[in-house]
Amino acid sequence: MKDKKQLIINAAIKCFAHKGFHATSIQEIVDTAGIAKGSVYSYFKSKEDLLFIAIKHEYDQMMGDIFTVANDKNLSPRERLSKQFQHMLQVTLEYSDFIATLKNEKYLLINDQMKAFITNKKKQEFQWYCQSILDIYGDAAQPYLYDAAIIIQTVVNRFTYEDRNQLIAEELSLFFMDRLDDVVQGMIQKKQKPMLNKENLSPAHDYSLLESDFTPENSLKAIQSIRVSIQQSKLEAKVRTSSLSYLTVLDHELTKPQVDPMIANAMISHLQSLKLPEIDIHLNHLEQYVLKI
Fold first, then answer.
1. Residue 280 to residue 99: CA distance in whole angstroms
2. Are 271 and 279 in contact (CB under 8 A)?
3. If exposure means fewest CB atoms within 10 Å of the residue's CB, which of 13, 106, 214, 281 is most exposed?
4. What pLDDT shows up at residue 212?
5. Residue 163: CB partners within 8 Å, gap ≥ 6?
6. Alpha carbons 88 and 99: distance in angstroms, whole number
7. Which uninterrupted H or E stretch holds 31?
């Protein structure tokens, strides 16, 4: 990313965190960045566009280490989740301005694009918890999967996204794992009736993508479908060409013995920015596939 564009994003996040989106003006952002006002419009169409790109960029940066741990096959499922918790706690301190911005979530839902982004990230987070629970506790946890995921997600978010004072990331990570044991093993031992199931689960916690068993063959079919959709779209020729290049990089990455999740997710993010409804479901599936491999 160009230095000036990153400078604007950093300034915007700081201003949004301190004053909120609606109360922040473009002038305040450029004053914080120390640049001319016209520079903003060289990179962003509007304040809404700046917010979306800033949130998406910061989220991708923040989640980089967590994705890396998620794909470490040398760790057991329990070790992976514990280390992911630890990374999450560490990066949320590093990205404190970004976290402060996310706390005002109701003010971020400025358009359909932002709503779809935030909803998708919530689903991904919930699916990550569900898969982690299954990997650690096995089939015995299946009946209690949704209950356990909701409970641990709530506990982790409450501790992670609030001011933590002197709480140490490693100790807090172990605390989360102990609480997860209490919840899952307790329900298994007591054979309690689950409170949540597919029928009464909120759409915001849709687990269907994770249960669809998305295979390497499926990923190749998804890429081909995306390619056809882009070729047949009404995108400008230059945008269509660059988008197909991103897709080629993604295709190449997913066929490698060791997939780099940062590269794959960066390409998926570029394609999502096209706002083509016909490719959204394929991109969502690919995001989940990258998260699992």
1. 26
2. yes
3. 106
4. 46
5. none
6. 12
7. helix 26-33
